[in-house]
Amino acid sequence: MYLDHPKKLVFVHNPKTAGRSIVRLLRLDDADSFRFAHVYASTIRSKFLQDDWDQFFSFCVVRNPWERYVSLYKFQRSPMYAAMLRNNLSSLIAGRFGLNDWIEYNAMSEAKANWFGIDQKRWWEGVTTVFRFEDIEAAMQELAARFGSTVAVPHENASKASGRAFTEQLNDRSKAIIAELDRATIEEFGYVAN
After folding, report:
1. Exposed/middle/buried for 106, CB within 10 Å: 0-12, 13-18, 19+?
2. In the chain, what are the domain boundaries?
3. Which H/E stretch holds residue 141?
4. Which backbone phi and psi does 14 adopt, to 5 degrees?
5. Which CATH number is 2-189's, of 1.10.3210, 1.10.443, 3.40.120, 3.40.50?
6. Residue 123's Cα: distance from chain center in Å?
7. In what order do the strands lie in the sheet with 9-12?
């Protein structure tokens, strides 16, 4: 979460949806912002803004759930993630399993990787605007115009592509698990796993 009182702006950072790039674009790291990464919109509203929520422009980015889980897996396997979180449980789990086994393990286990099994709805429900990751260039242009940014922003924390489309990396069982986990987002935004 990035809360900027002077700009009347709340950015609800859904993991693996270009959040770091948006933070740079809007200079939220440099602003007098109150930051907690990946806090849900409902928590921001109830704990930080209470009656002032409607005075702020709040937004979030959603992503195709199947693509997002592949990106989450790849990020949690990365040396950067392991170093950043000192080889936490998420990086250890991702490092131990291939993609489909990682999805099945997390779906069945009590100990889950960070952000696994949380419908993106937790981040987008109740915000003013929801942008789609698939339209991130247009979203960034709109945000830059609205908040006066002239910064050209590269995509940060981007997962490295493996050369295969995400749907080719996921087996049918993994696709079904993800469809169940992120059902509300799939229904609300019309995502498909093809």
Report:
1. buried
2. 2-189
3. helix 136-147
4. -75, 125
5. 3.40.50
6. 8
7. 33-35, 2-4, 9-12, 57-62, 129-132
Task: Please state, in angstroms and rounded to a whole number, the distance separating the CA atoms of residues 83 and 133.
Answer: 26
Residue 156 in this model has a pLDDT that exceeds 70? no
* 20-67 pLDDT per residue, tens: 889 888 888 755 555 577 888 999 899 989 899 999 999 999 999 999
In terms of DSSP H, where are the helices of 78-171?
79-84, 89-96, 99-108, 121-124, 136-147, 166-169
Max mean pLDDT range (58-62, 152-156, 166-170): 58-62
Give the separation between CA 157 and CA 169, rounded to whole angstroms: 20
Task: Using CB atoms within 10 Å of the CB of residue 11, give its burial: 0 to 12 exposed, 13 to 18 middle, 19+ buried.
Answer: buried
Please report, for residues 13, 19, 96, 134, 136, the alpha-carbon distance to residue 57 in angstroms, rounded to integers and kept in the order given. 14, 16, 41, 21, 18
- Length of the chain, in residues: 194
* Residue 153: per-residue pLDDT: 61
Kindly state the tokens that stand for 94: 């991702």
Regarding pTM above 0.90, the answer is no
- Residue-level pLDDT at 193: 87
